[in-house]
Amino acid sequence: MEADGWCAGALTDESGAVCLLGATRKEAGGDRGLEADAAAVVLDAIRRSFGDHVDSVPAFNDTHRTGRVPVRLLGEAVSMAEARGL
């Protein structure tokens, strides 16, 4: 997201920017199991900061007008994933 840019409402926009789930998918490189594990970690990071009322990664991503919070949450998820050995 830092390199490609952030977007809402789509996994990837016409300029190549990605949402939280799009970034996760891109980094997983086609490994659907890794993608699912990573998306679960992202959702865990979101819920740690914003509570259990968040239904999904895309729903959280799309509530923001800029990528500032999603990028920060992605950084937290990366730290969590590393701690979990993903």
Describe the structure.
The protein is built from four helices and no strands. It is mainly alpha-helical and 86 residues long. The longest helix is centred in the middle third of the chain and has 19 residues, at 32-50. The protein is globular and about 35 Å long. The two termini are 19 Å apart.
Low-confidence stretches: none
What pattern of helices and strands is seen along the backbone? HHHH
How many DSSP-defined strands? 0
The helicity comes to: 55-70%
Q: How much of the residues is beta strand, in percent?
A: under 5%
Q: Figure out the total of helices.
A: 4
Instruction: Output the radius of gyration.
Output: 12 Å
Note the gap between the termini: 19 Å
Topology:
Layout: H1 20-28, H2 32-50, H3 57-62, H4 68-83
Helix pairs in contact: 1-2, 2-4
Short descriptors:
86 residues; mainly alpha; 4 helices; globular
